[in-house]
Amino acid sequence: EIHSYSIDESFLDITESLNFFYPGIKNRYEQMNRIALDLQREILNKLGLYVTVGMGDNPLLAKLAMDNYAKHNDNMRALIRYE
Q: What is the pLDDT along the chain (83 residues), one digit of tens a residue?
């Protein structure tokens, strides 16, 4: 499910699809990171654009991860979780 946040930001809810993409990985946060990496690579290869990815247990945590950490990390990904 995709939710547009602004002209250049969207939320992608992959909660129900995590095991579909990487069934061999049991840690959901590692699954999220792998999906984010694949999305970044695909967008770079197809469009030539670098994208930042914030991940979290809900949209607020994902937004905070992107704004406060992903934009400053070399891999342009960050995760904030409840645990």
A: 888 988 989 999 988 888 888 888 989 999 999 999 999 999 999 999 999 999 999 999 999 999 999 999 999 999 999 87
Q: For residue 29, with 0-12 CB atoms within 10 Å meaning exposed, 13-18 middle and 19 or more buried, which class applies?
A: middle
Catalytic pick from 1, 9, 16, 83? 9
Q: How many other C-beta atoms are found inside a 10 Å radius of the C-beta of residue 56? A: 20
Give catalytic status of residue 83 as yes or no: no
Coil, helix or strand at residue 28: helix
